[in-house]
Design brief:
The chain is α+β, with helices and mostly antiparallel strands. The chain folds into two domains: about 220 residues, Beta Polymerase, domain 2 (2-Layer Sandwich); about 130 residues, no CATH class. Helix content is about 35%, strand content about 20%. The protein contains twelve helices and twelve strands. The strands form two sheets. Strands 1, 2, 3, 4, 5, 8, 9, 10, 11 and 12 form a ten-stranded mixed sheet that branches. A two-stranded antiparallel sheet has the order 6-7. It is globular. It comes from Loxia curvirostra (Red crossbill). This is IPIL1 protein.
């Protein structure tokens, strides 16, 4: 249902921006646990989708890494550059070029560049883009084929757009995020942290007060790469959902033990790249659970849990990463444990309690 609805929206979006110089929406991507085949017990019931945005004609996006802040919670600024449209072959009417047409001609045609609408300075503004995107979604609803089947309530947020859909006793909440793809990879920068990054974990972008995050800072997300990794694993396991059952067990049965869903997810993904996939069968379920526990124990003792995507040389080749992402030193998600002995003691105590459950 959600996939069909979002594809209908995308078609309307593309038609709506075709004669403008606003970002061009691309194929919608489902992100988060709901689209990976599992749901933590603390799941908020929101289905999140990502709408990649391409630059409009005459514009280019350049991603610049912001050096301030945590390495494992990287943000980027999206610099918008005007580029010549005369260099591309065009059929019919001469293309409008912001570099070569005069201000008088541009004013006569009532055309504004992206720099004049959604940017702060030369950088794409998250809140301005969110406001534009919300209006685009709202104005597109009556053109979507499914509009007569659902009652919808639009919920604007400063960095995303939510739809509360209802039909009879059935209801769905969909949060639409938007972002820009890094090069031709599975890594994106997005309008706000995705589901896993919102959790209480060491990879949480939202651990920083929101008022100090610049309106031109776009958090990096690995949700698309992680979902692709889970699909890759499912195709090769003897029992295609065993790893998801492990993850479901740790995040639900062991809820409240001090380890977040995203921590368990990171540990399970690392185990999937170290334990041969041929060993992931039903009769070995208990053994795989102990493998996960053993890795968590080792990480706690070393006070080091490496980020799963950044700098991971074991990732399947089908997961596309920017070259710089592959070369980076894997950030330590347990760095806070090394810096705070009281927190480390709490984590070790929580792990000790897990062993007797």
């Amino acid at each position: 249902v959600i996939a069909e609805l979002m594809e209908s929206f995308r078609c309307v979006f593309v038609d709506s921006v075709s004669n403008s110089f606003y970002p061009v929406p691309q194929e919608v991507i489902g992100v988060g646990s709901a689209f990976e085949g599992w749901r933590p017990c603390d799941w908020d019931g929101v289905y999140r989708v990502l709408v990649p945005l391409n630059p409009p004609p005459g514009h280019a996006f350049h991603l610049e890494l912001n050096r301030a802040g945590q390495v494992s919670a990287r943000t980027f600024s999206i610099r918008v550059e005007l580029v010549c449209t005369f260099e591309k072959e065009q059929l019919g009417e001469e293309p409008l070029c912001f570099l070569h047409h005069s201000q008088k001609e541009l004013g006569w045609k009532q055309k504004l560049s992206l720099l004049e609408t959604l940017c702060t300075g030369s950088y794409l503004d998250v809140e301005k883009t969110s406001c534009w995107f919300f209006q685009l979604v709202r104005s597109s609803w009556l053109q979507v084929p499914q509009w007569h089947s659902w009652h919808v309530v639009f919920q604007p947020y400063s960095q995303s757009c939510r739809l509360q859909l209802s039909r009879g006793r059935k209801s769905l909440t969909v949060e639409i995020l938007f972002g820009v793809r890094q090069e031709d990879s599975d890594i994106f920068v997005v309008s706000q942290p995705t589901e896993a990054q919102k959790g209480s974990s060491s990879i949480s972008v939202s651990s920083q007060p929101t008022n100090i995050i610049s309106r031109t800072a776009w958090p990096e997300t690995y949700a698309v790469a992680e979902a692709k990794f889970f699909r890759h694993i499912a195709r090769q396991l003897p029992c295609e959902s065993l790893h998801l059952k492990c993850l479901q067990l740790f995040t639900c049965i062991l809820r409240g033990t001090g380890f977040s869903s995203s921590t368990w997810k990171t540990v399970v993904m690392h185990v999937l790249t170290t334990v041969p996939l041929s060993r992931w069968h039903r009769s070995a379920f208990a053994r795989r659970l102990w493998d996960v526990m053993a890795l968590l124990d080792r990480c706690l003792q070393l006070k080091r849990l490496e980020h799963f995507v950044l700098g991971n040389e074991r990732l399947p080749a089908e997961i596309s990463l920017p070259p710089a992402t592959r070369r980076v030193e894997p950030p330590n998600l347990f760095e806070h444990l090394a810096q705070d002995l009281a927190t480390l003691r709490e984590a070790l105590q929580a792990y000790g309690q897990l062993r007797f459950r």
